[in-house]
């Protein structure tokens, strides 16, 4: 299977483990990821906040590049890129005036025919859980994980058109297919503080702190994530959260694709598991997965 | 007590926000489900319900300086739960655009500064250079050592390199052109 792959800026910057593990998992599943030449930033939250036309134009620029690849499906692991691309395609389709303004700005045309997936949708709907199960050679039996979806992959439902916005299950299903024990918890879609990481660090410590405490209380060995912003906030701010509570939490924050890659038999290094602040390797060794 | 007289001028802000955001704020029931689930609402940050009330009541200064729309991370929780499906992050964009046009100083300068630096990086290089943007932000906010301890650990683990700050000066003229054309069209 060949699909267009839109990594987004973070995956070639601070979230290389996500990119590495997505590529490993897709190789295992015989999926060819084709990156469009010259892709750019989707504008992310700053463009979405500050200038609607610019934000839509940046996404449309990338959609036009991907349409030229001649592939029907796009996979964007970053949930913000996913939601922004999907939303822009829809906004342009619904509003002829916006379309003409955007096409003037990007000096290209878009036909709006792409099917845009995030990692969860791609794995559950396009690849299928059965195909995933077939590739599992080292099931993660006994590994207790809480599934953390964050916001952008599922909310708001009218934009993402994916899974349930309050109690999604796709990540649970993938983790179970990898053999892990999925724990129930109440914070599947609670916000981690997202892009306020630098400008309002105390807010991120407050919001991410709720997640870390709950995961610990539930007895999780790790929190499985699908968003590099969630990963960064939960990983980077654990020290502050811990010192506030006078505790050393040390809950590893791992991407779903890193866990899936492990179950497929990939080495931890190839999956970037050695690149997190809270080290997942010690826990994985203790549990007998390494 | 604030009392609206029904004069057409009282609808100026509401009209502008509704036109730019495409959201019909007149449908708002003021039920408060939005602010109840809003992750950034606090004692200091009102959340969406009050912000909409300010727009409906023509409280222009209050609405344009309400920190809610600067704090908004577009998580989409309010829209998910809103009985009339108002998309608040579109409302936030409208307020941000109006504030800029009328020269209203950002009520949350740090959030504004970060978002501005982020977009400057995209405008020049086509993609945001994350590590460099963070470094510049910490410098201009006079907090140059913020998170340096964590950056050093990540560098030791090989997760990032000090060269990341220096690497990638290739410009993307196509994206710069999109920025300038979009600005021109927005002003029209």
Portion of residues in beta strands of chain B equals: under 5%
Shape of chain A: globular
**What are the secondary-structure elements of chain B, in order, as H or E?**
HHHHHHHHHHHH
SS elements, strand count of chain A: 8
Helix/strand/pairing category of chain A: alpha/beta
Instruction: Give me the CATH fold name of the largest domain in chain A.
Output: Rossmann fold
The ordered string of helix (H) and strand (E) elements of chain A is EHEHHEHHEHHEHHEHEHHEHH
Binned strand content of chain A: 5-15%
Characterize the quaternary organization of these chains.
heterodimer
Tell me what the CATH architecture of the largest domain in chain A is.
3-Layer(aba) Sandwich
Strand order of the largest sheet of chain A: 2-1-3-4
Structure overview:
The complex is a heterodimer of chains A (290) and B (188). With 290 residues, chain A is α/β, with parallel strands linked by helices. Chain A has two domains: 2-119, Glutathione S-transferase Yfyf (Class Pi), Chain A, domain 2 (Up-down Bundle), CATH 1.20.1050; 131-286, Rossmann fold (3-Layer(aba) Sandwich). In chain A, 48% of the residues lie in helices and 9% in strands. Chain A contains 14 helices and eight strands. Chain A has helices at residues 16-28, 44-50, 52-67, 79-94, 96-106, 119-127, 129-135, 157-160, 170-177, 201-217, 228-236, 238-245, 256-263, 280-286, and strands at 2-5, 32-34, 73-75, 115-117, 144-148, 181-182, 222-225, 253-255. In chain A, the strands form two sheets. Chain A has a four-stranded parallel beta sheet with strand order 2-1-3-4, sandwiched between helices. A four-stranded parallel beta sheet of chain A has the order 6-5-7-8, sandwiched between helices. In chain A, helix 1 (16-28) links the parallel strand 1 and strand 2 (32-34). The longest helix of chain A is centred in the last third of the chain and has 17 residues, at 201-217. The radius of gyration of chain A is 19 Å and the shape is globular. With 188 residues, chain B is mainly alpha-helical. Chain B has two domains: 8-101, no CATH class; 109-187, no CATH class. Chain B has helices at residues 12-21, 33-37, 48-56, 60-65, 68-71, 77-81, 88-101, 109-125, 130-140, 148-156, 163-166, 173-187. In chain B, helix 8 (109-125) packs across helix 12 (173-187). Chain B is globular, with a radius of gyration of 20 Å. The mean pLDDT of chain B is 94.
């Amino acid at each position: 299977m060949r699909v267009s792959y839109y990594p987004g800026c973070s995956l070639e910057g601070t979230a290389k483990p996500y990119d590495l593990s997505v590529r490993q998992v897709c190789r295992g599943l015989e999926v060819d990821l084709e990156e469009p030449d010259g892709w750019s930033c989707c504008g992310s939250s700053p463009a979405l906040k500050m200038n609607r036309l610019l934000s839509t134009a940046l996404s449309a620029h990338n959609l036009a590049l991907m349409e030229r690849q001649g592939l029907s499906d796009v996979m964007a692991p970053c949930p913000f890129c996913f939601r922004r691309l999907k939303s822009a395609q829809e906004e342009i389709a619904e509003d002829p005036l916006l379309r003409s303004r955007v096409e003037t700005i990007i000096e290209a045309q878009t036909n709006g025919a792409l099917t845009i997936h995030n990692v969860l949708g791609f794995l559950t709907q396009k690849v299928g859980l059965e195909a995933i199960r077939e590739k599992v050679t080292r099931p993660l039996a006994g590994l207790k994980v809480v599934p953390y979806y964050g916001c952008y992959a599922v909310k708001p439902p009218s934009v993402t058109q994916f899974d349930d916005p309050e109690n999604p299950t796709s990540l649970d299903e993938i983790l179970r297919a990898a053999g892990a024990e999925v724990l129930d918890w109440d914070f599947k879609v609670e916000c981690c503080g997202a892009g306020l990481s630098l400008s309002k660090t105390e807010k991120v410590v407050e919001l991410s702190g709720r997640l870390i405490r709950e995961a610990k209380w539930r007895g999780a060995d790790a929190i499985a994530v699908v968003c590099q912003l969630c990963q960064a906030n939960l990983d980077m701010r654990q020290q502050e959260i811990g010192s506030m509570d006078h505790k050393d939490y040390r809950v590893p924050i791992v991407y779903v694709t890193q866990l899936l890659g492990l179950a497929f038999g990939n080495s931890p290094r190839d999956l970037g598991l050695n690149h997190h602040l809270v080290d997942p390797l010690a826990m994985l060794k203790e549990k007998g997965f390494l | 007590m604030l009392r609206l007289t029904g004069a057409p001028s009282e609808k100026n802000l509401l009209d502008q926000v509704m036109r730019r955001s495409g959201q019909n704020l007149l449908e708002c029931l003021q039920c408060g489900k939005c602010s109840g689930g809003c992750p950034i609402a606090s004692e200091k940050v009102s959340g969406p319900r009050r912000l909409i009330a300010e727009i409906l009541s023509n409280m222009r200064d209050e609405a344009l300086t309400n920190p809610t729309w600067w704090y908004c991370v577009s998580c989409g929780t309010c829209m998910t739960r809103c009985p009339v499906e108002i998309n608040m992050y579109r409302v936030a964009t409208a307020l941000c655009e109006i504030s800029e046009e009328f020269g209203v100083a950002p009520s949350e300068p740090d959030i504004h500064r970060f978002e501005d630096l982020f977009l400057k990086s995209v405008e020049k290089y086509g993609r945001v250079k994350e590590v460099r943007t963070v470094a510049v932000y910490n410098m201009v906010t006079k907090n140059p050592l913020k998170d340096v301890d964590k950056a050093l650990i990540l560098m030791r683990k090989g997760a990032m390199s000090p060269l990341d700050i220096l690497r990638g000066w290739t410009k993307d003229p196509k994206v710069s052109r999109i920025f300038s054309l979009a600005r021109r069209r927005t002003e029209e």
